[in-house]
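Chain X:
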Amino acid sequence: MIDEDWHRVCRTTELGDEEVTQLWIGDTPLAVYCIHGEYYATSDICSHHGANLSEGYIEDDMIECPLHQGCYHIPTGEVRKGPACEDLPTYPARVEDGWVFVQYAEDNE
């Protein structure tokens, strides 16, 4: 059973390996990733200049911002290369019956 903090965001077939997409929960844009068959979710907003990371470039388990090439580690949200200046919020993701679910509570932001 999925509680109210878990949101069904997309089918697993909608994301190929090493792909990212922007999905929204309420007014919050999230970047949802498939990396080697595992699913992850982070904020979609780069901490440096507010660009959408879902438009960025993935290499291995890193996302590169399309604006100034700051890099984040997708599983942890940690900054790995500037000018990104703060780690990304990350959100638990899981797969159930072919759907990707992300745990996100709007009141926790």
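Chain Y:
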Amino acid sequence: MRSRYSANVKGLASYLLHTWHPATRPPSLQLDERITWTGLEVLAAKDGGPEDRRGMVEFVARYARDGEPGSLHEISRFRQQGDTWLYVRGRARWGA
């Protein structure tokens, strides 16, 4: 989760696609260049350990877009493939 947040901060769409599960990965990803990410708070995590195949992370990511503050509150689902955790999908709420 933290590496995907960092990829958003750095504008690394290729990393986000690479860490997205192939079953749900879009063919391309366009990041909003007007967004500056300013912080990540992990609220909860369930499963996701070495013996698990699936995991969930709930987080709030804060940002500014065109100088206006906002937040993304998401519950993300991940699936382990080999030694790598891949993003499957999320339920997101964007707000101020």
